Give the backbone structure.
Amino acid sequence: MYADTLGEKNQSRIERPKNTRVQLESAKAEVQKPFPQEEELAAKTARLNELNALPNPDKKENEIVDGERGEAAPQKSSAGRER
């Protein structure tokens, strides 16, 4: 009984790296495939950038949704806090 369990564990230890290699090769092949919605993504990103450039009367400053304008995110100040 113990020998069967040991044999199964050894077999599992042998097959796990093989399975990992197969998964790695599959992932490499998948990465090489073209992104089917690439044109749609580019068009919608361009439109989003246009909308972000428009003034928003409801807010004092325009909010940047995708963060592409090179502005850093606002930092929280801890100046008035005690330790």
User: Anything to note?
Assistant: The chain has a mean pLDDT of 79. The first helix runs from residue 2 to 32. The CA atoms of residues 17 and 80 lie 55 Å apart. The helical segments are 2-32, 38-53.
